[in-house]
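To the structural biology subgroup,

Please find below the input and predicted structure for Aminotransferase, which we are adding to the shared reference set this quarter. The sequence is reproduced verbatim from the submission form. If anyone notices a discrepancy with their own records, reply to this email rather than editing the shared folder directly, so we keep one authoritative version.
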Amino acid sequence: MPELANDLHFSEKVQNLKPSGIRIFDNKVSKIPGIIKLTLGEPDLNTPEHVKQAAIESIKNNDSHYAPQKGKRELLEAISNFLAQKIQVKYDPESEIVATVGATEAINAAIFTLLNPEDKILVPTPVFSLYWPVANLAGVQYSLVNTAVDNFKLTAEKLETTLKTEPNIKAIILNYPTNPTGVEYTKEEIKQLAQIIRKYHLYVITDEIYSSLTYGVDHYSIATEIPERALYISGLSKSHAMTGYRLGYIAGPKKVMEQVSKVHGLMVTTTTDSSQAAAIEALNNGYEDVEKYRKIYEKRRKFVFNELTNLGFDVVNPQGAFYIFAKIPAKYGKDDMQFALDLAFKKKVGVTPGSAFGPGGEGYVRLSYASSDDSLRIAMKRISEFLKEDNEDD
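Predicted structure (tokenized):
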């Protein structure tokens, strides 16, 4: 096994990057025999059959050559039509949309494109722990804003207050429905944020990968309100249980998308042919699949929310995605890591410490209900037993 030569070095910027706290914890508890993992945002449902068949036919037909850099025309048209219906913004398939390797690549391409080294990006937390490491990698600054005291939403007032004290902010991240809380913004809240973003001449990178999975509320995209300032990011991973296909997309004004396309080409050249074929089928003929999956998640959401509430947890009411964010018992203070470790090793239930999602998540844990009904029932029973035994030990 080769060892690196003593006279060689590598990027300090990369060396200083911290691995995902979500993955670190998941790897730590995955080795526990018989554990029920409610840790990762991985749908337990299968990709719809007609979508799988589209990918299979693509392979059978030797669809195995380089696709156009931005994506196949048929896919870009499908995305354009979908967004025109969903968020009432008509993006030109030729010049305003790029198909990416998942939403992750889209986020990377957006941050690398928009910001200079002296610029700063604002990231409301708790949120999926990708955005600020990508900013680090891109060599730009970031500001993490704790939204816990505002019901886990970035308010227009807090945004403006932050902008007055941090003039280098040039873009903000919005992810909603939010991972890890499942919190959704109202139309009025989005309109208020849009006013501030316009006033301070900012970009908004809006990651709406969970927007098809909402419960009892209508999703309103900030790209609908300020399309001239928004880079809209989404994909098929969550809506159609296609995480392994790695198919996302980014849309925005032509001038900035010309630059995004260049970064995308340098990062990955283009996306996979068979994944694009599957995405075309999902977007054109997969509405009923989304609604079917949404109803399954909604039922699970209600079950887990009620169970945890009955057990005495202070639970954030999720209106979207497939996560529950629960405050840990008072005896643990804000030590969500210790609570999650105790639960995993004593009762074999894996949940993700809230601190993995930034300062706004401290003292909470995230549970994913993208798991089978049986697993969720067993997990809730084990959590109940854990709390009872934990109280008896006091």
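Summary notes: The domain at 65-286 is CATH 3.40.640.10 (Aspartate Aminotransferase; domain 2). The mean pLDDT is 96.

Regards,
Lab coordination
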